[in-house]
Design brief:
alpha+beta; Ribosomal Protein S5, domain 2; Alpha-Beta Plaits; 2 domains; six-stranded mixed beta sheet; four-stranded antiparallel beta sheet; 11 helices; 13 strands; 23% strand; disordered N terminus; binds alpha-D-galactopyranose
Length: 380
């Protein structure tokens, strides 16, 4: 569907101009599977984007098209059922429209086309980027500018209800609040956001294993449920309020699985604190060790890694990366690697070659830049 002003009729209450927005993907340096337990996370927005171009269409429907999908979709604004199969990507865009409408914003019909150089399902949060690009289209058309926390919460609720993924708030906040050259420090219990510069001698590299495990969504929900069993036992809102000593003394009452899930969350929260201090002190060796410990904990205690990710982390270590670990929800997707900026091109080539040699499979490695958050590019 191409968007040409001549084709479109009366715009109703909304702006009649063409609106362009863009939302970056994100990496996460450390703080995995702690956002929904009130932990601090250290993600960063990166220079891979979903871009949207949109215009009010004067009708009571959303018309969606995407460079990644063959089929254009026309959806009445009153539609209430999540989409499935090939059209399930529409949940991330239409779900946001539905949520803004539920919140009382008078969103009228518009046409929107998405273009993306952000790989889907690679653990770079293409879903939060699609949600946020859509949210900004809505706001630009209505002449609104919501606080980024409110926007992130609306996007998160769209993902919960429309995509059926009970995600935390990390991705939506990271995509909105990115700061060039910096990692964010997001406190997921207060939603306060701070930032920390990445030392100039370090670069971030994302290595996509290309593995997309089925059942991943169900497994994510199970991890949350295990954590909730632990918080119910301790009668606290979040595991952030439980010490490792308290956890250890309850090991037998909790049972082995819930104990190990909670141990990951509590120890990961401590690693985030230590990692932030290590970055501030430019102690890259300490930062790298903490990333390695994060990976082991995700693999052994939280059981969200997979063989391909473990192999990529091992190879990264052998190639001299400062730190490497799986990133995001897990069960496939990507690793995040911190490497010396001087050796980054070499690392990118070598890790793909070594992975191919060892497994016969193709991974994709890319050095990413840390960039500012999502924005409205222009309203014509
Ligand atoms: C996914 C979720 C996030 C977070 C990570 C794990 O990316 O969307 O909220 O829980 O997994 O850290």
């Amino acid at each position: 569907m191409s968007i040409s002003p001549s084709k479109l009729s009366t715009p109703g209450a909304q702006s009649s101009g063409i609106v362009r927005t863009r939302a970056p993907g994100r990496i996460n340096l450390i703080g995995e599977h702690v956002d929904y337990q009130g932990g601090v996370v250290m993600p960063a927005a990166v220079n891979r984007y979903i871009k949207a171009v949109a215009q009010a269409n004067g009708r009571s429907e959303l018309r969606l098209s995407s460079s990644q999908s063959h089929e254009d979709l026309v959806i009445p604004l009153e539609h209430r059922m999540p989409f499935s199969g090939d059209n399930s990507w529409a949940n991330y865009a239409f779900g946001v429209v539905a949520k803004y409408r539920d919140a009382g914003y008078p969103v009228a019909g518009f046409d929107v086309r998405f273009e993306s150089n952000l790989p889907l399902g690679a653990g770079l949060s293409s879903s939060a980027a699609l949600e946020t690009a859509t949210a900004l289209v809505i706001e630009a058309l209505l002449g609104l500018n919501l606080p980024q926390t409110e926007r992130a919460l609306l996007c998160q609720s769209a993902e919960h209800e429309w995509a059926g993924v009970p995600c935390g708030i990390m991705d939506q906040l990271a995509v909105n609040a990115g700061v060039a050259g910096h990692a964010l420090k997001i406190d997921c219990s207060t939603l306060e956001i701070d930032s920390a510069p990445l030392p100039a001698n370090l670069s971030a590299v994302v290595v996509d294993s290309k593995v997309k495990h089925a059942l991943a969504d169900g497994e994510y929900a199970k991890r949350r449920a295990d954590c909730e069993d632990a918080t119910a036992f301790f009668d606290v809102e979040f595991l952030r309020d439980v010490t490792i000593g308290e956890l250890d003394s309850a090991q037998f009452q909790l049972g082995e699985r819930v104990y190990r899930r909670a141990r990951h969350v509590i120890t990961e929260m401590a690693r985030v604190r230590d990692f932030a201090a290590a970055l501030e002190a430019s102690d890259t060796a300490a930062a790298g060790l903490l990333m390695a410990a994060s990976h082991s904990s995700l693999r052994n205690d939280y059981e969200v890694s997979c063989q391909e990710l473990d192999t990529l982390v091992d190879i990264a270590g052998e190639l001299g990366a400062i730190g490497a670990r799986m990133m995001g929800g897990g069960f496939g997707g990507s690793t995040v690697n911190l490497v010396e900026t001087d050796g980054v091109s070499r690392f990118v080539e070598d890790i793909v070659a070594r992975y191919r040699e060892e497994t016969g499979a193709e991974a994709e490695a890319v050095a990413v830049k840390l960039v500012g958050g999502a924005r409205i590019e222009n309203v014509e």
